[in-house]
Amino acid sequence: MDNPRVLLAIALSFLVLLIWQAWMQDYGPQTQPVPATEQGIAGDADSPMDIPAAEDLPVAPTDQQAVAEQSPVAIQIPAGQQVEVTTDLLHVTIDTLGGDLRQVELLQYPATDAEDSPPFRLLEQDSSQLFISQSGLRVGQGPEPTHHASFRADQNYFELGERDDVVEVPLHWSNGEGVEVTKIYRFRRGSYVVELEYRVRNGSSAEWKALPYYQLQRTPLQNQSRLLYTYTGGVLYSPQEKYEKISFDDMQDENLNREVKDGWAAMIQHYFLAAWVPAVGGTDRYYTRALPGERYVIGLMSPSMKVAPGAEQVSGARLFVGPKLQHALEEVAPGLKLTVDYGKLTFLAQPIYWLLEKIHGLVGNWGWSIIFLTMLIKAVFFKLSETSYKSMANMRKLAPRMKSLKERYGGDKQKLNQAMMEMYKKEKVNPLGGCLPVLVQIPVFIALYWVLLESVEMRQAPFMLWIQNLSAPDPYYILPLVMGVTMFIQQKLNPAPMDPMQAKVMMILPVVFTVFFAFFPSGLVLYWVVNNSLSIAQQYVITKRVEAAA
Questions:
Q1: Looking at the domain 31-69+79-341, which fold is it?
Q2: Which pairs from 44-51 meet CB under 8 Å and 24+ separation?
Q3: Domain residues of the chain, as ranges?
Q4: pLDDT tens digits, 40-80
Q5: Please, are residues 375 and 530 in contact by the beta-carbon 8 Å criterion?
Q6: What is the pTM of this model?
């Protein structure tokens, strides 16, 4: 096995991965909107009974199993009065119909890198995209304060004042029989966590029971990169199973119905997420639902509230809605930082991210941080790379003799291989010496790839000169062209493949990679250029030393 074949296999595998991801997005199995079957969600025997439910409501438990009546619901969600809330980080629109969060803009994150760009909109509701947060109390009979009920707001606009640390938004509902519910949203300065509290006062003569639920409803993203796949869909965390993806296809195939203690549920996308985190210590029932119009729901139902006549009771949960900032996520809930999805190589990617962040703390620029991190990684693997390059230099030195052997033995592969093995043994050259060091380094560089792709800190981060957005492609294609040149130079330093067809493929690879990398984020291309440049310098010096010693 010679080193060019290893490099060829790695390069082709990378291309196949990119092509497969793009194909799956365009031509892979598509979910077909079909009515979802209602299922019982929570297992409280004292909770309300047999009821028909709207398709996007969790079903209150029953003593006797019942099938909910299905009625078509328009994809356009009904609306009531709009209540706006502005904090130092968020601009939120709450609809009094259900008290839903219908729109959340992240004021610190522009939608694009244009100077006049509006804030990035994470939760939204328009004709092409739906992503909203819903919550309510299921009673089971009579009026109930679900996300289909009408609430009353004290005013239409709330703002976190310059001297305020918190702003509360109360919404009011009553069943007309003495039960009053106040749904309170609480926003704190410097936080992407929205606290939701239900305060129930029972002025009736009978006990009032309800099941709090919290859910996220969305449609798939309309605009996603065809080359760089990142996961968009549901996530469930439990202390037992840890981080678990529940894709839209999974929701379409089967309704989730699982009890979890101290977990959370989220909808995530590239760089951002929304996650419901219930109160600590309780056992909640988690569920999913696939709705007509390619709408998907993931949520949880908390233990039953039982409010005695004349009593008052409080229940609530927290909603994180914002960027995937790992330090902020760690403080909200265990495992929430895993939504920065590094995949199977998280154990390698987390230390790499930690180091990248520390370097940024010193240099203050993410582009230079990528360069210095790449240099440090190359330094760590210096000895392995040196072994690999020495082996390749020795193989290159033997190239004329290998060509002569091939001409001598012609099509007799058995004799050719035997002669080559004898030559390797005599010259003390290990043909695998150039392969194994490269293979050892591959997981580290793949982990670094995911760190640069998944970290929200890279989003719209400027570097220098014409590169003012490390998460966007190079506008002038300079970095991809430089990367292609470095690949070509590396091939010239490697021993030439004996197979003519293999040699032609190797010559085409720099061109193919240049075209692919023209659409890659600049941060990833910058890493590749620096890594290739350092490899060329190291390999050139070692090759010259080996040739001089010959």
A1: Beta-galactosidase; Chain A, domain 5 (2.70.98)
A2: 44/211, 44/303, 44/304, 46/209, 46/304, 46/306, 47/140, 47/209, 47/211, 47/304, 48/138, 48/139, 48/140, 48/141, 48/209, 48/210, 48/211, 49/140, 49/141, 50/140, 51/140, 51/141
A3: 3-19+348-549, 31-69+79-341
A4: 333 343 433 333 346 677 765 443 333 233 333 335 677 88
A5: yes
A6: 0.80
